[in-house]
User: Which sequence fits this backbone?
């Protein structure tokens, strides 16, 4: 995962993130683990539906919000560790 930080104003910055395919797949897997208990499909116990079955039934987008949140949190950790925040 690569990111760049562009200072816009005194107290504002723009962070641009480029996510590798491996990091994105890991974030999707973590999002699946977090949300798998919400899905129940015939033939499977609640919380035990395989990843591909959920994707086929609901689409890959059901995990995007949580995957993006995971990526955002990881990026925020890395970007703030290297910068000193002055208030």
Assistant:
């Amino acid at each position: 995962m690569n990111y760049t930080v562009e200072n816009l104003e005194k107290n504002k910055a723009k962070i641009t993130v480029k996510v590798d395919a491996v990091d994105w797949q890991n974030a999707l897997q973590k999002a699946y683990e977090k949300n798998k208990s919400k899905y129940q499909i015939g033939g499977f116990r609640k919380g035990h539906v395989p990843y591909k079955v959920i994707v086929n039934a609901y689409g890959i987008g059901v995990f995007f919000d949580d995957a993006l949140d995971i990526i955002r949190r990881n990026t925020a950790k890395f970007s703030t560790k290297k910068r000193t925040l002055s208030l």
